[in-house]
Amino acid sequence: MLLHPMIEPASPLASLHGITKVFANGVTALAGFDLDIRAGEFLSLLGPSGCGKSTVLRLIAGLAEPTTGHVAWPGSTHEDHRSEIGFVFQEPTLMPWADVADNVWLPLQLRGVSRHDARERIAESLSLVGLENFAKAYPRELSGGMKMRVSIARALSLKPRLLLMDEPFAALDEITRFRLNDDLLRLQNDLRCTVVFVTHSVYESAYLSSRIAVMSPRPGRIVAEVMGETPGSRAKDFRTSTRYAALCGEISRILLEHMAEERG
């Protein structure tokens, strides 16, 4: 099973302290950025384009280094945490010449796992995203939503403690997006992993998250946190509930206030 035991909520899985990120072209993406990622939560990073949300994910994943500050992993004895992280990008980035099963195998292959030894994990990962009958299909034969499911299955094949998702549903139609939002909540509940999710959508963040961290325009920093629903506690009619409407209203108000401050 692709399961991980829940860690006590009081123990951060990862912490970003005093982060500044300046790119080679002189652009300061992040300044004074602090964030604790709590084990077992669904955390959304919400903010305007260019505020550094994707940069935060890359720093957590070890794909980039901060200019100042540091990323800490309290209580961990590992120096390199990339093996504990699954990353789902905006685009599915599937290999067009490989079938679905081989696309899911890729991160395992890069870690030296043979195709034969990876069979069970590939099958389990595809089953989790409802694509167990499409293992031999090629990306050109899949819809946009199915391609993104393959991308998620590929990340899950690593049995990650932490799943990083960079606007994975932004290019999809609303109906497909709603369905994948529900599937993602089910997966997190089943796998009991931690999710950090980047989005521009107030509505998506309010629906998915146990916590929403609102970021300022560039250089990005956390300006407010809004508590959402506890993982696994959403009612079927949550999207039409007064609680959901209130969450969307509160998040929108905070965003508008800080956008106005930046303009002023």
Verbal overview:
The chain is α/β, with parallel strands linked by helices. The chain has a single domain, classed as Rossmann fold (3-Layer(aba) Sandwich). The protein has helices at 53-61, 100-110, 119-128, 144-156, 174-191, 202-208, 242-263; strands spanning 12-22, 28-38, 42-46, 68-72, 85-88, 162-166, 194-199, 211-215, 222-227. α2 (100-110) packs parallel to α4 (144-156), α3 packs across α4 (144-156) and α6 crosses α7. The N and C termini lie far apart (53 Å).
Question: Quick gist of this model?
Answer:
By secondary structure, this protein is an alpha/beta fold.
Return the domain count: 1
Strand content: 15-25%
CATH homologous superfamily title: P-loop containing nucleotide triphosphate hydrolases
Low-confidence stretches: 1-9
The number of helical segments is: 7
Known CATH architecture: 3-Layer(aba) Sandwich
Q: What's the order of the H and E elements?
A: EEEHEEHHHEHEHEEH
Give the tags.
22% strand, Rossmann fold, disordered N terminus, globular, 264 residues, alpha/beta, 6-stranded mixed β-sheet, 3-stranded antiparallel β-sheet, 9 strands
Fold blueprint:
Blueprint: E1 12-22, E2 28-38, E3 42-46, H1 53-61, E4 68-72, E5 85-88, H2 100-110, H3 119-128, H4 144-156, E6 162-166, H5 174-191, E7 194-199, H6 202-208, E8 211-215, E9 222-227, H7 242-263
Parallel strand pairs: 3-7, 3-8, 5-6, 6-7
Antiparallel strand pairs: 1-2, 1-4, 8-9
Helix pairs in contact: 2-3, 2-4, 3-4, 6-7
